[in-house]
Design a protein that fits this description.
Keywords: Membrane, Transmembrane, Transmembrane helix. By secondary structure, the chain is of the alpha+beta class. The protein has helices at about 15-25, 55-75, 80-95, 100-110, 130-135, 150-160; strands spanning about 5-10, 30-40, 50, 115-125, 140-145. Helix content is about 50%, strand content about 20%. Strands 3-2-4-1-5 form a 5-stranded antiparallel sheet, with helices on both faces. Strand 2 and strand 3 (about 50) form a beta hairpin. The longest helix is centred in the middle third of the chain and has 20 residues, at about 55-75. The protein is globular.
């Protein structure tokens, strides 16, 4: 099963650092990377910047559309009040197929703010113990995942 995970970092560079660690781990067979996206929001910037990982050329267009839709709805469409809730609802309906719900989208939108960054990752088959060793000291907050409660607890324990 593919796992969708979002990690928030308290610096604009934190997600880039974590992305490098994750890519290195993938090259050593500790996790299969399906795709990634990094959102970085420097302090004082009006909006964040995004970068799609493009893990595989044949998958690039599909994942590019996925990330464009998701990140556009979360960060680039100017929304206020009820319009924000409606847009999150539309995004949630579209994201149900990949296990992302409205509450998760709202946590992501509220959690990534100026001065922070986020790593969005879709992975499979992670060796959690060995992968956790790689992330030791890379302080991030798990914002959202479609893991089961038991898998999520194991993930938090591994990376804590």
């Amino acid at each position: 099963m593919a796992t969708f995970t979002v990690w928030k970092f308290d610096t604009p560079e934190g997600a880039d650092t974590a992305s490098g660690i994750l890519h290195d781990a993938a090259s050593q067979g500790l996790v299969t990377m399906i795709d990634t996206a990094v959102v970085s929001w420097p302090e004082g910037a009006k909006k964040p910047t995004t970068r799609h990982g493009q893990q595989g050329e044949w998958r690039g267009a599909g994942w590019g559309a996925f990330w464009g839709f998701l990140l556009g709805m979360l960060f680039f469409i100017p929304l206020i009040g009820a319009a924000a809730g409606a847009a999150i609802g539309v995004a949630a309906k579209a994201m149900e197929a990949v296990g992302i719900n409205k509450d998760q989208l709202e946590r992501i939108r509220e959690g990534v703010t100026p001065g922070s960054s986020a790593l969005f990752a879709v992975t499979e088959g992670a060796d959690m113990d060995r992968l956790g060793e790689r992330f030791h000291g890379a302080v991030g907050t798990l914002v959202s995942t479609n893991l089961t409660p038991a898998e999520k607890a194991n993930l938090l324990e591994t990376f804590d």
